[in-house]
Specification:
This protein is α/β, with parallel strands linked by helices and 238 residues long. The protein has seven helices and nine strands. The strands form two sheets. Strands 5-6-7-3-8-9 form a six-stranded mixed beta sheet, sandwiched between helices. It has a three-stranded antiparallel beta sheet with strand order 2-1-4, with helices on one face.
């Protein structure tokens, strides 16, 4: 049974613009689903509807005893703590989780995201890749069943992309279910179980990357000409 089932999901802005139009798909346990499409195709709106930040105009979203954690495109908008460890602990503190449990969970995700050496550091002094890892840690500490990442490679240099991509692959290998929105397929598609391409608020293609990627160009998503196979679409081999 799917962790998440979306059926005929629609969303219209107050000005009448339709951002999502009858979107239907499901997500399985442990799956890495890459969602791509040109700007304005509905990718971010979809994530915000799944998280509950936007109320859909129609359709349904059904979770199977599941919570979803969303990592926004701009890490600075999600960082609130005065130090790395306090930022990670923030959500747990708001839920009045016992202090000992907060300490244990915070340390666990810092270890997983290689942030222990930065525990006392002010978040604003971190590099772009470190900030992105911090926002992922701040979501993971809440134990979401599904981790949703909105353009996790945006504005990162090469080392930053590698830092974040390595952790995404690690989380997938550990069994986490991940929705990853990106227009940069060459960085991550080799690790995806499925690819969903969106265009004008609709799903234009959905399936194994090798098949769905054939529609990328028609959806305004660029795949570098020198990448001849899906296996080449990762920055971890470069």
């Amino acid at each position: 049974m799917a962790l998440l089932e979306v059926k005929d999901l629609s969303f219209r802005f107050s000005n009448g613009h339709t951002a999502l139009d009858s979107v239907s798909f499901s997500v399985e346990q442990g799956e890495l689903l890459v969602i791509s499409g040109k700007n304005g195709s509905g990718k971010t709106v979809l994530l915000r509807c799944l998280k509950g930040l936007y109320r859909p105009s129609g359709g349904s979203i059904n979770f199977r005893d599941t919570s979803i954690g969303l990592v926004f495109q701009d890490p600075d908008s999600q960082i609130v703590g005065q130090s790395v460890e306090r930022d990670i602990a923030f959500g747990l503190e708001n839920l009045s989780v016992p202090p000992k449990e907060i300490t244990e969970k915070t340390l666990s995700v810092m270890e997983a995201l290689n942030l222990v050496s930065h525990a006392k550091q002010r978040p604003r002094t971190l590099s772009g890749g470190e900030k992105r890892r911090l926002t992922i840690a701040g979501v993971l500490v809440m134990d979401p069943s599904i981790l949703a990442l909105d353009e996790p490679f945006a504005n990162l240099d090469y080392p930053g992309v590698l830092q974040v991509l390595e952790k995404i692959v690690m989380l997938k290998q550990e069994g986490h279910t991940i929705l990853l929105v990106t227009h940069e397929l060459d960085k991550v598609l080799a690790h995806a179980d499925r690819l969903m391409l969106m265009d004008s608020g609709k799903i234009a293609a959905l399936g194994p990357p090798q098949e769905a990627s054939k529609a990328a160009e028609a959806c305004g998503v660029r795949i570098p000409a020198d990448l001849m196979s899906i296996e080449d679409m990762t920055w971890l081999k470069r």
